[in-house]
Write a structure and sequence with these properties.
The complex is a heterotrimer of chains A (355), B (355) and C (333). By secondary structure, chain B is α/β, with parallel strands linked by helices. Chain B contains 11 helices and 11 strands. Chain C folds into 2 domains: 2-107, no CATH class; 111-326, MetI-like (MetI-like fold, Orthogonal Bundle), CATH 1.10.3720.10.
């Protein structure tokens, strides 16, 4: 018996540190209305990590920028609620949100070279981040910057604080970005593809660092990525996004061991994995990620879904609700029983390489 | 199984033979541009690629694999060593004499967005090789191009469309179609799937495998994604700072890595299994320090500055790339103290201490 | 750095050689004899014998490189010229002697410099401020009425020639309305700063209009690019007020190409704002050249050419150095 769970954006005070309710972010463009986020809801406590997984055009980055207030009523059509530590962001004034930005919530981006200003030293940029929210002298801020660089394990921080971004290697640059983001002790840290541009050994170091910092600051961490390995490493909960909606949402262990949505099955099956036996062929998902202007009707995934035929046409016309499946939330027309059958008979074996 | 030189394991048909390949980029300074040093991008590579097989070149940034790819197709000229392709010594061949040989070796590039001329239609792009090499096609170039598009899994009616009308995965297919135009014997693929979404990566990987089976192609795949390389390669060479540190057939390398760098590389890959998170972290070898500069690489073994097994001899004597004497199936390793099967490797290191 | 300085000096030398060859070598190639060349140079006509003697005295029969050597040497130590009317002394730096106006080129030319300098510097400050401000506002309000209007005006400014706008401005503001000084009035700043500014306000504004237009468009383009960069997004993400994001992050990055072009523009302008000075009858270096050319006063024309070249090369050098100061990536490579 499935029950529909739709947190209503009704303005009642939230229970979690971060709560996103029915968030919609649309952009009117010349080519049409881009529905980047279309009814997203999730929550996150301090000290926990949420992994948001999606491919290009899933809307995952837009969500994070909205949480920071960088997308707001002035530059996008927004509805829904975002609650950060009891304060609602979407309806708040830009000035209020600006004061929270960098202090209560911070973000690190994918490419640290383009995300830092090339003309200012790393130290200057960290000092700037700190002094926006703290009334201190430059000397105090500088000492804090050196301190932060040391905390992210950059060797010789007192010397490197005066270096420019291009003088750092890729991994060190990302550490510096992390130092800058953490400089005001934010309670929420969003990492948008933080290691995609880095080598795998450097990635391991950065993920390690982020884990340590989260523990130290007890911050809530959202990690946005397309790399399921990274998600498995860090996340307590996982939210899989497709075409602006959450299509599967639950604890990481359940998502990986008992995935219930055909898209998630497809993602897991199309990935070559080091920890499994080699398969002859990878099992890709047919088709390509959808355009956010022309989102397919009904279930957005139906053109690529091998099981759309089992829904008696519902997947073509009706948008499925995010409902409780066997163990966590899934947005799919197939009944729990059908999904479990398919899982047991086909998917499980494919994934474990025993087919 | 590929070896440093084919004569070790019998008369396999070697299509590409590389011996002591070297590329140093000079660094000049001063008024008269005196050469004061060199970036030793590639420093003494030796390997063979057997016809019909796939050689995977794996390494992180700065290891020289991209430069190697460009050397193999003679987009760059080596400063030392020898390249033999299909019986011809192409090491210092002039561009004029190389041109007819270029029919047989083609290259797929990483970025599907910048490797296609945005002002040319797909038909022009894929048909260009015919025009450049003055190749006669039985039914005309347009027909030949359409056949190629079909082969690459694209709709032949898209002949007149421009690259920006296609997704990343489709653009990569266009690039692949272009390389197939002249029936090459060998394709060098430089990061063919790293810029693509996960679900699309699998499509392109499958396509490459199918094409190899159908057309008898030989591949050299350059990538940093160890899982993809494992899936697609027959033999794998691991590069570090311009040198090959380990080379073996695919299965041996991944199940029994011997070089400390290979071990740490493999252990750094995040595993998409949340349950194994803690044990994976404990077993992970976290390399400290940075990759040294290729301008001034460490003496002796280049990996010694980051290796937990390094001893005095590693600084004085450069380990040669050799297998275990008497064992025809052993890996080729460049290490004085290779990792044995049952050896316990250094576990998770504490983050560098902060002063 | 040293390399650039040496390069600049070499360029100056090369230009001097080329200029010299154009004035003294090319006519010979075209069939001039040393005598007719000398006649043209001095602007004197005389009977055959006197002319030949004069040509000898002035060294026109010497090989071309000797002539060049002499000319170059004169720049450093001065020279004496004897065109038949007696010896004229031209002290260093000697860029030639004008036989038409009977004076050395250099002092006359240099006396004009303050006018050009005043014109250039005043207009430069005006156009820089106006152009950048307009460009920034246009970029921030992209697509708005202001943006469209500003870019429209800028297009006009860039397209209309200075002699048109100048003469139009003069006729309206100076002659019809009497608000500004009529052309050809100039008071040195040392004499009366207020009057100096009053005299120059119209040429400043007219000249600035031309350049401000170009700079507004440039700034707008640069701002649009820098405001869309990732580091601007990071600046906002840190919680910086929008004003800081625009100025410290956006503008700073967009200004680099503008600053370098500014250096070049001012350098060119110093070498002679021909049209402006002629339109407003200001006795600057540009007017100096414009007067000398129809008068066939070769020494003066050569002198102006060298001076203009010097300013342009110097401007290029400064711009190169500025780039490495502004952009740390250039500095440290």
């Amino acid at each position: 018996m499935t029950s529909v769970i739709r947190p209503t954006a009704d303005g009642r005070s939230p229970r979690a540190f971060l709560e996103v309710r029915e968030l919609c972010i649309h952009f009117p463009t010349e080519d049409g209305l881009v529905k980047s986020v279309d009814g997203l809801s999730y929550s996150l406590e301090r000290g926990k990590t949420l992994g948001i997984v999606g491919e290009s055009g899933s809307g995952k980055s837009v969500t994070s920028l909205a949480v920071l207030g960088l997308y707001n009523r002035n530059n996008a059509q927004m509805s829904g609620e975002i609650w950060v530590d009891g304060e609602e962001i979407v309806s708040a004034s830009p000035e209020t949100v600006r004061k929270l930005r960098g202090r209560k919530m911070a973000i690190i981006f994918q490419d640290p070279l383009s995300s830092m200003h090339p003309f200012y030293t790393v130290g200057d940029q960290i000092i700037e981040a700190y002094r926006v929210h703290n009334k201190v002298t430059k000397a105090v801020a500088r000492k804090h910057a050196i301190d932060m660089l040391g905390r992210v394990a950059i060797p010789q921080p007192a010397k490197r604080v005066d270096d420019y971004p291009h003088q750092f290697s890729g991994g060190m640059r990302q550490r510096a970005m992390i130092a800058m983001a953490m400089s005001c002790d934010p309670e929420l840290l969003i990492a948008d593809e933080p290691t995609t541009a880095l080598d795998v050994t450097v990635q391991a170091q950065i993920l390690d660092l982020m884990r340590d910092l989260q523990r130290e600051f007890n911050s809530a961490l959202i990690i946005i990525t397309h790399d399921l390995g990274v998600v498995a490493e860090l996340a307590d909960d996982v939210l899989v996004m497709y075409a602006g909606k959450a299509i599967e949402y639950g604890p990481a262990v359940e998502i990986f061991e008992r995935p219930e949505h055909p898209y998630t099955w497809g993602l897991l099956a199309s990935m070559p994995r080091l920890d499994r036996e080699l398969s002859d062929r990878l099992i890709p998902i047919k088709g390509t990620p959808p355009s956010l202007i022309n989102v397919p009707s009904g279930c957005a995934f139906h053109p690529r879904c091998s099981y759309a035929g089992l829904t008696n046409g519902a997947s073509l016309n009706v948008v499925p609700e995010l409902a409780r499946g066997a163990s966590h939330l899934v947005r799919c027309h197939l009944s729990v029983e059908t999904r479990q059958q398919i899982w047991q008979r086909e998917i499980k074996q494919e994934l474990e390489g025993t087919a | 199984m590929s070896t440093a030189h084919a004569d070790r394991s019998g008369p396999h048909d070697v299509l590409l033979s590389v011996s002591g390949l070297q590329k140093h980029f000079p660094i000049t300074t001063g008024l008269l541009r005196r050469q004061v040093g060199a970036v030793q991008a590639v420093d003494g590579l030796t390997f063979d690629v057997v016809r019909g097989k796939t050689m995977g070149l794996v390494g992180e940034s700065g290891c020289g694999k991209t430069t190697t790819g460009r050397l193999l197709t003679r987009l760059l000229e080596p400063t030392g060593g020898r390249i033999e392709f299909d019986g011809h010594d192409i090491t210092h061949m002039s561009q004029g004499r190389l041109r007819p040989l270029r029919k047989d070796m083609q290259m797929i590039f990483q970025d599907p967005f910048s490797s296609l001329n945005p002002r040319h239609t797909v038909g022009t792009i894929v048909g260009a090789p015919f025009r450049i090499q003055h190749v006669k096609t039985p039914h005309g170039i347009k027909r030949a191009v359409q056949d190629l598009l079909k082969l690459a899994g694209l709709n032949p009616e898209h002949y007149n469309r421009y690259p920006h009308e296609f997704s990343g995965g489709q653009r990569q297919r266009i690039g692949i179609a272009r390389t197939l135009a002249l029936n090459p014997k060998m394709i060098i693929a430089d990061e063919p799937v790293s810029a693509l979404d996960v679900s699309v990566q699998a499509q392109v990987v499958n396509l490459l495998e199918d094409l190899q089976a159908e057309l008898g192609l030989t591949y050299v795949v350059i990538a940093h994604d160890l899982s993809v390389v494992r899936h697609i390669s027959d033999d794998v060479a691991v590069m570090y700072l311009g040198k090959i540190v380990e080379m073996a057939d695919r299965d041996s390398l991944y199940t029994h890595p011997r070089h400390p760098y290979t071990v740490s590389l493999l252990s750094a890959v995040p595993v998409p299994d949340p349950r194994r998170r803690d044990s994976a972290q404990r077993e992970r070898v976290l390399l400290t320090g940075e990759v040294p500069s290729p301008i001034d690489p460490p003496s002796g073994c280049r990996f010694r500055t980051r290796c937990w097994k390094a001893q005095d001899i590693c600084a004085t004597e450069e380990p040669p790339l050799i297998g275990k004497p008497g064992d025809m199936d052993s890996h080729l390793i460049a290490c004085h103290f290779p990792v044995a099967d049952d050896e316990k490797v250094a576990g998770r290191k504490a983050p560098a201490s902060v002063v | 750095m040293i390399r650039r300085l040496i390069g600049a000096v070499l360029t100056l030398f090369a230009v001097s050689v080329i200029t010299f060859l154009i004035f003294f070598g090319l006519p010979r190639l075209a069939g001039d004899s040393p005598v007719s060349l000398a006649a043209r140079y001095t602007g004197k006509t005389a009977d055959e014998a006197t002319a030949v003697a004069m040509a000898h005295r002035l060294g026109f029969f010497d090989p071309i490189y000797v002539q060049y050597g002499r000319w170059a040497k004169a720049i450093f130590v001065g020279a004496d010229y004897n065109a038949g009317a007696g010896i004229e002394h031209c002290s260093a730096p000697c860029f030639g002697y004008s036989f038409i106006t009977h004076e050395a080129v250099w002092p006359d030319m240099i006396s004009r410099l303050p006018v050009t300098l005043s014109l250039a510097v005043g207009a430069a400050i005006l156009w820089l401020v106006a152009g950048i401000a307009t460009g920034v506002l246009s970029a921030l309000k992209r697509g708005s009425a202001f943006d469209r209007a500003a870019m429209g005006v800028a297009l006009a400014g860039v397209s209309l020639p200075i002699f048109f706008t100048g003469l139009l401005a003069l006729s309206i503001f100076s002659y019809k309305l009497g608000w500004t000084a009529p052309g050809s009035t100039y008071t040195p700043i040392t004499q009366n700063p207020a009057l100096w500014a009053y005299d120059l306000i119209l040429p400043w504004v007219t000249l600035a209009f031309l350049y401000a237009a170009a700079y507004a468009r440039l700034t707008r383009a640069g701002m649009l690019e820098s405001m869309g960069e990732d580091y601007t997004r990071t600046a906002r993400a840190k919680g910086l007020p929008e004003k800081t994001v625009v100025t410290k992050h956006g503008l700073r990055a967009a200004l680099t190409p503008i600053m370098t072009i500014f250096g070049l523009d001012v350098g060119l302008l110093l070498g002679g704002a021909f049209l402006t000075e002629t339109t407003f009858s200001l006795q600057g270096i540009g007017k100096f050249a414009v007067d000398a050319i129809p008068a066939h006063d070769l020494p003066k024309v050569m002198g102006v050419t060298m001076l203009a070249t010097f300013f342009i090369i110097a401007a290029n050098l400064i711009v190169d150095l500025m780039y490495s100061v502004i952009d740390p990536r250039v500095r440290l490579s």
